[in-house]
Sequence to fold (578 residues):
Amino acid sequence: MEDAPEAYEFNWVGKQAARAEVLKPIKKTLRPVKEDSVDWDNTQNLYIEGDNLEVLKLLQKSYLGKVKMIYIDPPYNTGNDFVYHDDFAMSADEYAEASGSVDELGNKYIKNMDSNGRFHSDWCSMMYSRLMVARTLLSEDGVIFISIDENEVHNMRKIADMIFGESNFISQLGWQKVYSPKNQAHNFSNDYEFVLCYAHNYEKFNINLLPRTEKMNARYKNPDNDPRGPWKPGDCVGNGVRARGYYEVKSPKTGKVFNVPQGKHWVYAPENMQKMIENNQIWFGVDGNAFPSVKQYLSEVSGRRPSSLLLYEDYGHTDMAKKDVIKLFPDFEKVPFDTPKPVKLLKMLSLIGSNENDIILDFFSGSATTAQSIMELNAENTDSYRKWILVQIEEEIQDHPEAIKKGYKTICDIGKERIRRAGKKIKEESPLTTADLDTGFRVFRLDEGNYEDVKRSPKEFKQDQLDLFLNNIKTDRNDLDLLFGCMLDWGVQLSLPMTQEVVDGKTIYTVNDGDLVACFAENVSEDVVKAMAEKMPLRVIFRDSCFAQDADKINIYETFKQKLDWSDQEVVKNIRVI
Fold:
């Protein structure tokens, strides 16, 4: 419209649909897969199989504001269709109609641009919706790192600016992905990719310093045997004229007098400079005739400021990434992942963006490099107890016949196997320092909800379906399915420790020493109820079939009121019957 107000904004066909998709309620759940897990009872790490948009939405209650760092390595949109086919993804014809690239008779009038535009639009919609939900999981002082190449970095910046805010942009890092230029390149040798960095709240995010290298420390010497240890000379002079910044400084050894050049100033006030000279903190050279410099002590340097240029020596390169995988899969002739990232890259980013007890999330986990990186980081630092959550869609393996022949059907299958092998290798190589190292993980799989759909009129039910009104839980669901479904609904973290015990032949599940206590057995006895109440739970779950009659429910409510001194409102709030 000619009269519409003009504004600077980034739009694409499908943006509104992507936003609507974020707000759409989800009727799915995460089902535990114990047989694929490692150290189920003790681990705090999670591996979740399923579409990451739906998984992120399910995690919102339990992990809202709990994730310190997110790293993602999404599809780079190089021209091939990606596997995240959301409801808002369009065919080329649908794109042409929505974008106005056809006339009123249906004839296309933008030649050769329709398919390219569709790819960009679908990719933007995919990233927009997922980042919108992911932002809610970040803590106030959290940070996100996004690996991307030149194909979509411009669009990724615009999308991230919209979601996280331009004011929360930290840096566009350049990762040197190769260790030597490619002479066979048509134009420039493409030697690096990008890692975008955004804070949830710029004012609250504090970047961590990196450990210093031996090469850096070697610059510090101690030619005068200073008891404070090695040091290196620093400048005592600043640019510009300052009050009390122009005065004479005398060498205590030779009496030689020094002053600053015109237009410069001493950075210390006269009395402070004299005190530092007396303290042997100002260096005049071995013979006492050199221009004064301040001693900068190694003992006062805590770390090194990260650079926006991620050199391969520190952050690894693509060949190193392949070798990381080959070491774990010596039985493979070919690396079973197409474009893995090096363990070194993720370790360094985790050092920069997270602290010892934080949660790191990767919802495009692919080759599962993030998991191995965090486990190695924890093994190298006994004070580090970082936890990870990985999410990966169940994408079928297509271009690796060797992996298929060995029984790996999906990227998830081989990703989980990499974590198992990496955890075992880490513990074997460092048995003394990794006794309590968490190399396990709980596996969950996205599935339809635990309950049958009974929101139909009685006329829509067949005679053999009427019992759904009495028990609407799907027949293929077990106790753990129900327990974790309730944990998601209640906002309880899926990684919390869990125990189970049997009382009167009925299994009682306890999450985190009483955060939640549940029993799903039929016809529970009074002893079972008392055993549950004695755990002083915050929340309680029963299955409706636990009670032979409604009067039994009332008795149980009264038991919890008496044992825990709950009010009627607290009973209703804290006890759930499913």
Observations:
- Residues 102-114, 465-469 have pLDDT under 50 and may be disordered.
- The CA atoms of residues 283 and 293 lie 5 Å apart.
- The longest helix spans residues 114-137.
- DSSP finds 17 helices and 22 strands in the chain.
